[in-house]
Amino acid sequence: MAVLVHKNSNIIVQGITGKEGGFHAGQMKEYGTNLVGGVTPGKGGQEAVGVPVFNSVKEAVEKVNADVSVIFVPPAFAGDAIMEAATAGIKVIICITEGIPVQDMVKVRSYIKDFDCRLIGPNCPGVMTPGEAKCGIMPGFIHNPGRIGIVSRSGTLTYEAVDQVTKAGMGQSTCIGIGGDPIIGTTTKEAVELLMNDPDTDGIVMIGEIGGTMEADAAYYIKEHGTKPVVGFIAGQTAPKGRTMGHAGAIVGGHEDTAEAKMKIMAECGIHVVSSPAEIGKTMVAALGK
C-alpha cells in the first residue's frame, strides 16, 4: 500500500500542452504512471503525449475518471487551477508550479478546505511511489520500491535522501515533496502522519529547512504518536538571519526558526538527527537495526 498515489491512480496533467507540462507528462508516462489525460482550456479534443486533452478538469473527471492531478500551470493561473481541480472532485492535487503569489495561496487554502481533497505543494517536486506512479519532476531512475517513506521541503534534498536510501540497500514506499513556499497544502506533520499510518512503511526520512515551525510540529507529533524510526535533517545550518535562502519559506525570523533550534527539538523528540545528508542512509540502517 502506498500513500497518495499508486498504480491504479487515474492521473491527469493540468497544463499538458505547455513546454514543462508536456515534457514531464511524457516522463511520467514513460515511467509507467497511469496517465489518463491532460487539461488545457481551449485545446480539448487534441492529444498530447498519447493521451486525450480536455478543456476542463470536470470533463477529465467525467470522461476518464481522473482522481489525481499534477499541475504545471504558470504562476498567475496556478491558484485557479488548484481550485478548479478541487471543485471538480480531484482527491489528490499536486502543484509543481513555483512563484505563485502568496495572496493567491491564501485564497486557495481557504477555498479548498471545504472539499474532500489533499493539496501537495506548490513549489514542489511532486510525489513518487516507486514502481507504481511518478507524479511531478522527481527522476525515476534513482528510486527503488521499498519500505522507507521520505518527506521533504527541498526538491534536490529529496533526491539525495532517495539516493542514500537506495544505496543503503533499502527502497522507498512513497516520497513526498511538500514544497518550499510559505503557504502550502500539506505540512511536514501531515505528510509524516500519512507515512506513520502506512503499513508498508517501516521508517521515515524527514528533511526540513530553516523558517517556520513545521518541523517542530512534526517532531512533537512523532514524540507522542511515533511508532517507526525517523531520521531527520535540517538544511540551512549556515544561513544568516533575515535573508531568504532558496525557498520563499526558508527565512530565519526568530531563534526557533534556525536549523540549530529545530535540530535540538527533533533530537529531544526521539528523531535520529543527522548533520549532513550523506549520513541519512547509514543512520536509517542503524535505526532499523539492520
Short description:
This protein is an alpha/beta fold and 290 residues long. Helix content is 34%, strand content 22%. The strands form two sheets. A seven-stranded mixed sheet has the order 3-4-2-1-5-6-7, with helices on both faces. The chain has a seven-stranded mixed sheet with strand order 9-8-11-10-12-13-14, sandwiched between helices.
Task: Provide the fold topology.
Elements: E1 11-14, H1 19-31, E2 35-39, E3 47-48, E4 51-54, H2 57-64, E5 68-71, H3 75-88, E6 92-95, H4 102-112, E7 118-120, E8 126-129, E9 133-136, E10 145-152, H5 155-167, E11 172-177, H6 188-196, E12 203-209, H7 214-225, E13 230-235, H8 259-268, E14 272-273, H9 280-287
Parallel strand pairs: 1-2, 1-5, 2-4, 5-6, 6-7, 10-11, 10-12, 12-13, 13-14
Antiparallel strand pairs: 3-4, 8-9, 8-11
Helix pairs in contact: 2-3, 3-4, 5-9, 6-7
